[in-house]
Write a structure and sequence with these properties.
Organism: Streptomyces agglomeratus
Protein name: Lantibiotic ABC transporter
Low-confidence stretches: none
Order of helices and strands: EHHEEHEHEEEEHEHHHHHH
InterPro entries: BtrH_N (IPR026935), DUF4872 (IPR032369)
Strand content: 5-15%
Number of strands: 9
Distance between the termini: 49 Å
Structural class: alpha+beta
Number of domains: 2
Shape: globular
Largest sheet: 7 strands, antiparallel
Length: about 325
């Protein structure tokens, strides 16, 4: 058995920040989950639908692994990423750092992980690996998946090699900290402004605040979009609230990030942004509840109400990001 020493297998709410927490703590940098999410400019929005999809998807964060790239860049850390189509090389890429005493992050499809509670394909899942023996890999996943968990080496290889939406080619990564750890206070404002700029200036209409406006138009039509409303609508709401989002489609995490920032940086615009995202988080949970009610009842009225709330959310989040974009550099 090969194990990295002194690993704190702390399962958090979101997979990517859980893995990042393991790797950063190993480098001596212990940040809260909201702080990692916010410094990684993780908040976003996407309304995703296509003819090939069974049902639309509402996403609340940047695409998989962008958070990791943003966070390590913001903190001045060295991020070493490896990808390969070779199963042998893929194993060497994670075994080598562990053999050298360093945990590795892995992006994979959660469908094949033996401990995973929900058997659905999600190629953007991220875990930290800190050990292995002849049969099993020792991982850290989210708290809801068990925190410190194991899966067979065979299942791990299948999960890493899976192809499909959001998958990567056996992607693994390590993080190395500088000799002197960075001051997070110096990184807060640039990370917030970068997130606000992307949110306010989306390249297409289904992203950012414009994506929320699109959702406000489309969600009231969702009963016409499915033959299985009792299954598809509650499932969509569940993904918003409990699928590693921290609740409220990641708005709880960003609210708490801004709350931490307001304690470190004395600026009224930060406090205003925090107050607006506190309101937004409550409304996103209301939207999820309305979508669930519509699915269970088969009635359109809750979806119409959800559309109204979504229009309010588009305005609130636009106003919040416009305020935060005005923070002094």
């Amino acid at each position: 058995m090969t194990m990295v020493k002194d690993i704190e297998a702390r399962g958090m709410q979101h997979c990517e920040t859980t893995a990042l927490g393991v790797l950063l703590r190993h480098e001596g940098l212990d940040l809260s989950e909201p702080m990692m999410f916010g410094l990684g400019s993780g908040l976003s929005f996407i309304y995703w639908d296509s003819a090939a999809m069974g049902f639309p998807f509402l996403g609340g964060r940047v695409k998989p692994f962008e958070l990791t790239r943003n966070l390590t860049t913001a903190l001045g850390l060295e991020l070493l990423v490896k990808e390969t189509t070779s199963p042998r090389k893929a194993w060497e890429n994670v075994a080598a750092p562990i053999d050298a005493g360093r945990p590795a992050g892995i992006q994979l499809d959660s469908y094949h992980l033996e401990y995973f509670g929900s058997k659905v394909h999600f190629g953007g899942h991220v875990v930290a690996m800190y050990g292995y023996d002849e049969q099993d890999a020792y991982l850290v996943d989210t708290g809801q998946q068990g925190g410190a968990v194991t899966t067979s080496l065979t299942s791990l290889a299948k999960a890493r090699a899976e192809r499909g939406p959001m998958t990567a080619k056996n992607r693994s990564f390590t993080i190395t900290g500088p000799g002197e750890l960075p001051r997070t206070e110096d990184r807060i404002v640039p990370a917030i402004k970068a997130c606000a700029d992307d949110f306010l200036n989306p390249p297409i209409a289904n992203l950012g605040y414009r994506g929320i406006e699109k959702a406000a138009e489309q969600v009231p039509k969702w009963l016409q979009r499915t033959d299985r409303p009792q299954n598809d609508l509650p499932q969509a709401a569940l993904l918003m609230e409990r699928a590693g989002t921290g609740g409220a489609l990641f708005r709880n995490l960003y609210r708490d990030f801004l709350g931490e920032c307001a304690e470190l940086v004395d600026d009224g615009r930060l406090r205003t942004g925090h107050a607006l995202y506190t309101e937004a988080a409550t409304l996103w949970t209301e939207v999820a509840a309305l979508i669930t009610t519509a699915g269970e009842s088969g009635e359109a009225a809750p979806l119409a109400q959800a559309g109204t709330v979504l229009r309010t959310l588009a305005r609130i989040e636009r106003d919040a990001m416009q305020t935060l974009s005005q923070l002094p550099q």
